[in-house]
Amino acid sequence: xxxxxxxSPPPDFSATKKKVVTIRQRLRPxxxxxxxxxxxxxxxxxxxxxxxxxxxxxxxxAYRAWELITGPLxxxxxxxxxxxxxxxxxxxxxxxxxxxxxxTAWRLPFSFVLGAIFGxxxxxxxxxxxxxxxxxxxxxxxLLPIPALAWVPIAVIWFxxxxxxxxxVTTFATFLPIVMAVWTGVKTVNPVWIRAAQSMNANKMTxxxxxxxxxxxxxILSGFRIGLARAWRAGVGAEAFAGIKWGLSAGIxxxxxxxxIAFMMVALAVLGIFGYLLEKIFFQPIESRTVIKWGMMEAMxxxxxxx
Amino acid sequence: MVAxxxxxxxxxxxxxxxxxxxxxxNVNLDIQDGEFLCLVGLSGCGKTTLLNMLAGFVEITxxxxxxxGKTLTEDYDKGVVFQEYALFPWRxxxxxxxxxxEIRNVAPEERKRIALEHLRLVRLEEFADFYPHNLSGGMxxxxxxxxxxxxxxxxxLMDEPFGALDAQTREELQELTVDVWQKTKKTVVYVTHNLSxxxxxxxxxxxxxxxxxxxxxxITVNIPRPRDPLSSAFIEIQREIDRLIRT
Lengths: 307, 247
Fold this sequence. Notes:
Oligomer: heterodimer
Distance between the termini of chain B: 33 Å
Helix content of chain B: 25-40%
Distance between the termini of chain A: 41 Å
Radius of gyration of chain A: 25 Å
Strand order of the largest sheet of chain B: 6-7-8-3-9-10
Order of helices and strands of chain A: HHHHHHHHHHHHHHHH
Largest sheet of chain A: none
CATH architecture of one domain in chain A: Orthogonal Bundle
Largest interface: A-B, 29 and 40 residues
CATH class of one domain in chain A: Mainly Alpha
């Protein structure tokens, strides 16, 4: 009989994954942006006079961004040219763009975490107890298709104008897809894993902790991802209508009245970068340390390797 | 000597809305301590049902299963190897083998030592830190065998564990299974529909026939090990079982 399998040394899987990626390949994702920027710039340069303000060139937008970030600092420098390091930080901190960003940046993750906590708790209860499953499923099935933004007018009347309304709407928007995902995840854990744990005499609580939770992680993470996307949309929309001063999209809607296109573009760019960073610093590290490492999920953009 | 497991007048009936299914009828069987018992038969003959009852997954309709003279409790120590890949993908091979020991609150250092010892038994020691998805199908089932044995169960129950593997890997694992059984001296109950596999592995072979599922005959295999599947004695027993199954 052969023992080839056991005699040969462990194959080095890390080596097969590390393919040489040239700089050209690395730059590929940048190309579409360069193309769009080029077309934009050419088109904007055709706009003359008042039209130029409505369709600003890239350099005008870049200048506006600079102005938005350093505005208070420049004003302060004119009055008192000898500022200390901490004064610089203080005046940068006063910049309207950063203020808008900060407000969006704490409201959104705060609401997301809140919605995720509720979603996981209710989802697990639904997955474990059939009574609560049949109680919640119809409710969520009806609520899920309603865009969270449609709740904003009612939410404003009930909870008043202000951050609390934004947070409530965003939390609600996060909650629904996460509760669905957690419920499905808990229900669809491979039954053979549970049987294996049972056969080793694990009790129900242990099975839940050591099998159901890691076993449903791929579903839960994808629920978090959808939840975050929903939260992002709902939060940005609610900001605009909840009568608040600070927040990127609140700023965008204010800027519309002054036809400040450049500000709107800058704020949109920040929204885009923000969402991208959340994906990069939150989801990708969690996934590559868990479900991707365990072979339960393909890495995002996995098809790139076939190129 | 009293048998390790005594099965008395065992019966299993599944009631479905359309009809009753007699999965097992009047099954009597003694399983000796340390023997390698194979259950064979066509699909639907009740061999897997019997194994599931021994594992405590399926309730008994009537009759008794006695372990060391006492009625079987659900939480007795049994190691089960499933046909499907049942390793936990989020645990390395070693941590999979440790699972049953964790349930029994064995200290981490001791757990690790026992797990490595059992991985060595299935000749996979150097793959201890691999996640299952990086192991071949055959290697996964070897880890599953190690996991089922690590907490020193009273019996090892195997449900067509190598059914999904290619012929060559299968042969290799059969040889390994005999080796593991000889080293650990466990009582093994092994379900298969592959007759050659049954003759290669078993001390005794229980032949089931369907409708209702019942025992046709119990055959003792006295061929010395390691057995040669091409020897005339081997083929003779295989032919005999084949005849019994079809009557």
